[in-house]
Amino acid sequence: MRTIGYFESLPIENQNALIAFEQPTPVPSGRELLVEIRAVAVNPVDTKVRTSRTPENGQPVVLGYDAAGVVAATGPDVTDFAVGDEVYYAGDITRPGTNAEFHLVDERIVGRKPKSLTFAEAAALPLTSITAWEALFDRLKVNDPVVSGANTLLIVGGAGGVGSIAIQLARQLTDLTVIATASRPESRSWCLDLGAHHVIDHSKPLAAQIKDLGLEAPGYVFSTTHTERHLEDLAELIAPQGRFLLIDEAENLSIMPFKLKAVSIHWEMMFTRSMFQTADMGEQGKLLNRVCEMVDAGRIRTTMADVMEPIDPQNLREAHRKIESNKTIGKIVLAGF
User: Fold this and answer.
1) How far is it, in rounded angstroms, from Cα 36 to Cα 98?
2) Parallel, antiparallel, or unpaired for β 218-223 and 243-246?
């Protein structure tokens, strides 16, 4: 099967940063599905792994943590899927990625592809939907009120992949007032179109802008990017006993600014369940099916903003370059081998 990966961690400008090569088509065992890949999406995690993980023992690293495709074969213990089923999922960071013609994945973290979406449109959703869902409902517990704060959610980085779906889930499944941050006219419009009640500029101090809206201190803050840059500001604006969650890799993060307000700090890592084979890892397949139902009911929409064809090294390198620019809106998708 045709596969795209790397044998050496290189800057994306280098032609060998991502290359194509042939590998044997894998055979599913246990609860594994063999999926024929029709579309993949590119996430910041792809670029982070490419620049930090060195291939070992001459074996290539294959990236890709979002996919939509068709079940081509099933392991002997599979119970929920059959050959021919259309699926979408976000994969497992400890296993080879989805940038290949065929891919093995545990059925417990797989959802049924929304019928109303193309494979490309569906591939934009899994990783960010799982991240946003777990962040909102498992970590921040937004349906459990913060007594001393407003029923308001601030999403830092509202136009990114995670922010784009978090806005929609919060609007559809809660009664929260949603404030998103965006610094460009096009990203501001994107957030408003997805349902944000307010959009503030993250290139300027955030706390003052919250006050200018005439709102009480938010009970929940969801930081998707550049957390270190905004940390003092977020500690100032969040309500006492509020809940703060981040997903980025803030290397010099000090949580001390939150101490006086007794703010609880939460991390979200959507790969945790599959990485540690937790007893509840099947919850990810269930929530993807919930997202599928919401999409097909017209309650939420794909966050695909750019699609490139085909899935090849050149297009993947260009997608990585765009992600590394930190100026993308929504999700970048590649379709078709």
Assistant:
1) 10
2) parallel
